[in-house]
Amino acid sequence: MDFDAARHGAMIQKAFSENGVGGLLSFDKVKTFVALTERLLTESEKYNLTAIREPDKIAYLHYADCALAAKVLPKNARVIDIGCGAGFPTLPLAVLRPDLRLLAVDATEKKVRYVEETARLLGLQNVTCRVMRAEDGGNDPAEREQYDVAVARAVAELRVLSEITLPFVRVGGSVIALKGKNAAYEVSDAKRALAILGGQIAEVDDTPLHSTVLGEQGRALIRIVKQKKTPAGYPRTWAQITKKPL
Fold this sequence. Notes:
- The protein is an alpha/beta fold.
- About 40% of the residues lie in helices and about 20% in strands.
- Strands 3-2-1-4-5-7-6 form a seven-stranded mixed β-sheet, sandwiched between helices.
- Helix 5 links the parallel strand 2 (about 100-105) and strand 3 (about 125-130).
- The longest helix is centred in the N-terminal third of the chain and has 18 residues, at about 25-45.
């Protein structure tokens, strides 16, 4: 693997600066991100963690994109990342916001173990990990409505995503969904689901991800506020959720 750590560190700083989140970085945090990239690239050679394997794209599409969520999370929030995959947004959030308490969950044990081991190697003490299906955890009294924020990135369309995230969030908390350029359509389709589940759209930030290297990238941050308790019976089984979205 041909990897220029110094160049990548400079690219991370450039990506953050171009998107107005440079203030979240420090010298040590850039070093941690460089180490994260090295590990991500090395482990991705063993099994499929991410389709994005070019360091410049990682700086923008993984790190800067997740940083846009980091700046809107409440201080000292208890956060659950639903479908954490290769650790996005959990790992960037943990680097940028050490005040957060993050739980990364995924149904795939291999990915959860990768995130857990990576957090340990990087010294990220604000991350815990668990193998869990969201539809099961959302019905567990120990997990239900226990979190200030649920985050999810590239997991499912908003109707489905609302049903597997809102049950984890306390009343007054929020769901942050990191989406692509077609978010407006998903928001429109999800109105009925949100009304049933107790959520309401509070913000849709569809400002493109700026990049002089890659060109502007369509993306959106959707913030849903939980206004009332999610009714018993939700989330349903995964088969029901996907076969007949609300």
